[in-house]
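Any chance you'd type out a single protein's sequence alongside its tokenized fold?
>
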Amino acid sequence: MFCYFAHFRLPGGAAVTLEPGSLRQIAQVLASVEGLERALVHVPTPAGTGHAFPNDEPGPPLALQLYARRIEALEDALRPAGALQALGTAGDVEALRGMRVQQQIMLVRALPIEPLDRELPPRATRCSYLVHYPGQAADLSAWHRHYIDHHPPIMRKFPNVREIEICTRVDWIGGLPGMRVDFMQRNKLMFDSPDDLSAALASPVIREMRADFHQFPEFAGGNAHYPMLTLDTPLRA
């Protein structure tokens, strides 16, 4: 599976809240993209949502994760005449016209976890912890091998975690105006609610995560963590 990541921000990082009408417009654009398996729309959690790294920069006003089994489906949607051009600075969604986009396609490594006994909540209440590593490792293969071998067994211990993904970079063809980035890795942890996310990240598991972090092979660039409300957008059949 491949995932297209797009983070939208106003110049200078000014805060903005997207109105429900704009989110509906964005969902309509995503529903028009052929070949998508899943489309996640992330917006910031309410102020005061606790997480493990509160001094990180604020999350973007909008982040998208678009999943497809074939990378060509994402690349076609990004063509100059593709469906995702509607999200660009000259596109159909007025709320996004002044925003700058940071974008990347990556390979998705979805990790199996024990399912929770309770039912899934309504779509609009889920919450994700988005993490990215923008820099470089001295030995990228060794870095990924350590991370994938050691970090997920700890991640699975988080109370009430619903999903765990680790995404690694690939070469890809774009076409949506905006910054292309080449982050070496992105992760997503999904929970049922901001309260579940905050409780998990306040649990003793976070100490195990930090201890393993100090065992990572050499890398530069640090990381960033964003708690985000997540809408699993319906796609056309």
